[in-house]
Amino acid sequence: MSTAAINDQVLQGCADSQIVEFHAVASRNYDKAKDWADARGIPTAHGSYESLLRDDAVEAIYVSLPNSMHVGLGD
Predict the structure, then answer these.
(1) At residue 7, does pLDDT exceed 90?
(2) Which of 15, 38, 53, 69 is 20 to 30 Å apart from 75, CA to CA?
């Protein structure tokens, strides 16, 4: 997960889940990721997306992109 504003809605939507655990957040700026994670009780912050991908504790990643950046099948 990144520090995008939409992710607060993702966290809220998953709050009652018995199977979802947010382990880490990533940003191109470590301090921003750390502040965002601390404010939301997420234990791990990464200063790059590559670092997040190398995190062995991460099993799935939510990629938040603006709709204009989504690519449909066949594009």
Answers:
(1) no
(2) 53
